[in-house]
Structures are given as C-alpha cells and as structure tokens.
Amino acid sequence: MTYQLDHIAIGCTDLAQGVAWAEERLGVKMQAGGQHAHFGTHNRLLGLDDGLYLEVIAKNPDAPIDRPTWFDLDNFTGPPRLANWICRSDDVENAQAITGPPVSLTRDDLHWQLTVPDDGSLPMQGGYPSLLKWGAGITPPSGSLPASGVRLTKWEVWHPQADWLREAITLDSDVVCFQSGPIGFKATFETPNGTVVL
Prior knowledge:
Layout: E1 2-11, H1 15-26, E2 31-36, E3 41-48, E4 52-59, E5 81-88, H2 96-99, E6 102-107, E7 110-115, E8 130-134, H3 141-144, E9 151-159, H4 162-168, E10 170-171, E11 176-180, E12 184-191, E13 194-197
Parallel strand pairs: 1-4, 1-10, 5-8, 9-11
Antiparallel strand pairs: 1-5, 2-3, 3-4, 6-7, 7-8, 9-12, 12-13
C-alpha cells in the first residue's frame, strides 16, 4: 500500500498561541479552520504548495469530551511544535494494528476517516503516520485553501526505528525522509521570506 502525504500538524496547548507561533516563523497568516466535536479540538489551516497543507491544532476548552482526544493532545505540554503527520490511504484499515482503527469524522461539509489509537496516542509515538481517507466527492482543504506561497520541501521523521519505518512505509512523496535518533519531527519550508526550518 502506497501512502500520500496529506498534511502535517503543529500541536499546542492554546490555539491562539500556536497560530501566533506558526505565523511568526513562516511569515504568513493562517487561514480559517474549524472544530472537531468528536475529539474536542479546533484548528487553523494554511494551504501549502504541491497539494499539501499545514494544521495548527489544540484541545478546545469550550468543548470538553469524555474520551481520549487524538494526536496525543491529552498529554501535550510545553510550547507549540510539530506534532504529527497524516497520510492519505485508500485502505485505512490496512495497518490498524499499528495506527489504531479508522474513526468516521465530520467538520462542516467535510467528512473523512482517520486512524486513531483507542487511547488517542500517536502510532509509534509519531514514527508511523496517521492514515486518512477523504469521503467520496469531498474537496479536501488542500484543494480549497488559498495559496500562501509556502512550500514544504522536507519532512524529517526522527525515530530509533527509522530503518524499519523506511522499509515498512511506501510513500508517494519526495519530501519525507526517516532519520535515526530521538523521536521528533523537522520540517523545512520555502516561504516568501526565505527558508524556514521548524
């Protein structure tokens, strides 16, 4: 199964703070997002070149829920930072032993399935992507957000099992690479103000 990179996410404890952090570094304004009632989160988005987008996401204090939220946001602390990567797949059940089961979700006129472990954690602590399947006939955010002039040129997944991930995951993307080391992410962007590394 071949995956396609759909979007990347910046996690934060406060959405306004996360948006300000991203805008200061990338030099552009984030665009409208919405709320995810099922998981009690809200977000803002940024259209990237090459059919990708960037999401800033946080728990919504006005939407408490009685289940674990996604993207491991229940355990997120500290300043805003790169928090997850999400890939499209025609078969979101293919790797659910790793990714968790697909959950059906809606936001405004969007509907999709996304794999989420039952405890809301990240697959392999973020080493393996969350898998997404957009609903039939849906135009995803990457196809509807206005252009920002920002391009993701490299997405680095750092993980002690980088070699295994490199062999296990087939990607239709030339920007993703796996690096051996402590778990984390590194993103390189070309922006109207030059190269930015997060």
